[in-house]
Every structure is written in structure tokens, then in C-alpha cells.
Amino acid sequence: MAEQDTSQEKTEEPTPRKLEKAKEDGDIARSKELNTSAILIVSAICFLVFGRMMGTTMMRIMEFCFSFDPRASWDVIVAGEYVSVVAGEALLSIVPLFGFLLLAALFAPIGLGGWNFSTKALAPKGSRMNPLSGIKRMFSMNSLVELLKGWGKVIVVATAAILVLISLKNEFLSMVFQPTESAITHAVEVIAWSFLLLAASTVLIAIVDIPFQIYSHTKKLRMTMQEIKEEYKNTEGKPEVKAKIKQLQREMANRRMMSDVPEADVIITNPTHYAVALKYDPNAMPAPLMVAKGVDEVAFKIREIGQEYDVPVLEMPALARSIYHHTRIGDEIPEGLYVAVAQVLAYIYQIDQWQKGNMKQRPPKPQTPIPDDLRADE
């Protein structure tokens, strides 16, 4: 019972993942009023811009049809040519209008929700064919809002139409006294302006509809705390799984690190708690690199691999701790430790020469200077 109550309390805002999934399903906020208003306004503007041309074309088509030779109607070929000419003229006159209407229909949805192509929205759903679901939708809050919007559109557009008719009454009456050509052109212009004013009135409905659609869409996608927790588990994974993944990642990183230890020039130790492996190629590196580091068991493994591959191991606790705490794997050692590490590398080289018999006595262990800001005490 508690779980049922929790599932009904959808008070949390939808997560980005929930919004993304809804978008994939084709469920996004849309305003039909915005699209309708945009198409109507674009249509009215097109009539204003191309209306004179369309009126002239219509008048030319009428003259052409009324001057049609009746005897030609008995000739199928001639009649077909007349039809082709009339259809071509009419089509060319409305191509700009339909072209801009197509653009308006394509770009109007960008205003709310943007473009969204989803094949899931086209898939048939049993709930849409369920009579009970249909009845529930008929008496839902959305249906009530749609009914109010419908009445609102009738009132707004009717009011705008009455105001337009009153303001343009003299314009309409004056057409009676104009020549046919001028009257047609004038009528198209007046109708276009009237159309634009009526279309502009639908913007009021769109301004009210857009916030409602956003609110309604967000409310529909709201989630319970339990749903958010389940989504987090499914997305991020359970804590024990994440811990296991991190452990595997650490093990993989350690294996990669250990594979670089045999290439090191020296391993500096604490002697037991810390171990760092350094590599230096004067022809390819501006400064020595740290190729591996570790504490306790990892440090022991570094020393073990170093001894296996005859990498010199040198006990210098202060220098080992300093390099460990101030250098990341694969990075150059800090500039303040250049002198100390240079002395260590020189000492390793001298030991190698002494072991080969090129030096008479064993070189003394160097005193590596460490700046105060790079010290790392126990």
C-alpha cells in the first residue's frame, strides 16, 4: 500500500534522462496553436506580397477562358491545350504561396519542442484503440482546456473580424465604383490585409497555449522519488557494482603501470612503504619521468619487478616520499627535484662503472637536496 501511494505522488521534476527518453518516444511539448498561427500569418504575408500578381493572373485566366472559341471545344487537342495553359498559369501563380507555407509548416515547430523525428510515435498503440481510454480522454482536463481554447479562438477571431469589417467598410463599398481590373486588384489587397489582421489575432491564443503545453508536458513526465532512485541505479549502476568496476579499473591501471617498471632507470624506495620508478632518456626527454609509484603492497611489487629485471633500487626515504606526493604517473618530476634526481642518476651510473671495474672505489651515496615546499614528511 505504501509503494502504491508513493507511485501516485509524482512531485519531482523529470530528470534529463526521462526527458530524453520521452523525446525518443516522440513525446515532446507541442503547441498546435503556435503552428496554426505561424502558417496563417505566413499565408497572409504571402497574399500581401504576391496578391497583386495572383489577382492579375486570375484576371488573365478569366479573360482567356471567356474569349474561348466555342468551336474549339469540339477539338480534343485544342481543348487540351487550353486546359494546359490555364492550369500552368494557375500553378505558377500559387507556387510561391505553397512554397512559403511549406517552409512555415517545417520551421514553426522549432518555436516549441524543436524538430523531432521518432519512429516510435508512429507505432500503433493498443491504448489509442481502447474505448475506455478514449472516454477518459474526452472528460479529462486537457479536453476541457481544448474546449475553452476553441471557444476562445471563436471569440477572439470573431471580435477581430467584426473590427476589421467595421474599419474597412468604406474600402469594400468603394470597389463597386471601380473598374473591373482595379476592383479585383483592390479586393485582393483588402482581403490580404484583413487576412493578416485575423491571423495576427490567433497569436493571442498561441501566447496562452504555449505555457500551458509546457506545464502540461512537464506535469505528465513528473516522477516519484522511487522512480528517480530506480533510474539512478539503472543509469549509474548499483554501488557494489560501481565499486567492483573501480576495483577492476585500478587493477588494470596497476598492470599497465607494472609493465613500465622494467624500462625504468632507477627505483627509489622509503624503503618499505613507498616506491617510485623513474626513467630518463636525455635524447628524448627534457626531464626524468615517473613511470610507476605505489605504497605498501604495490611498492613491494614494484621493488620485486625491479629486482627481477635488474633495475637499480635505491633507498632514499625523503626523496621517495617527495616524488610520490608531488608527481603523477607519466609526468615529469617537479623542477625543484631536478638536482636531487640528477645526483641519483649520476650515482647509479657511477655504481655501474665501479661494478665494471672502471672505478677504483665505490662512489659515496649522494646527499639529495629537497626544497621545503616539496618535502613530504611521514
UniProtKB/TrEMBL annotation:
Residues 7-26 have a biased composition (Basic and acidic residues). It comes from the Bacteria. The keyword Transmembrane applies. Gene3D superfamilies: 6.10.250.2080, secretion proteins EscU. The keyword Cell membrane applies. GO terms for cellular component: plasma membrane. The chain crosses the membrane at residues 34-51, 98-118, 150-170, 190-215. Keywords: Bacterial flagellum biogenesis, Bacterial flagellum protein export, Cell membrane, Cell projection, Cilium, Flagellum, Membrane, Protein transport, Transmembrane, Transmembrane helix, Transport. Residues 1-26, 358-378 are annotated as: Disordered. Pfam families: Bac_export_2. It is found in: Cell membrane. SUPFAM superfamilies: EscU C-terminal domain-like. It is a multi-pass membrane protein. InterPro entries: FlhB (IPR006136), T3SS_substrate_exporter (IPR006135), T3SS_substrate_exporter_C (IPR029025). Required for formation of the rod structure in the basal body of the flagellar apparatus. Together with FliI and FliH, may constitute the export apparatus of flagellin. Belongs to the type III secretion exporter family. This is Flagellar biosynthetic protein FlhB. The gene is flhB.
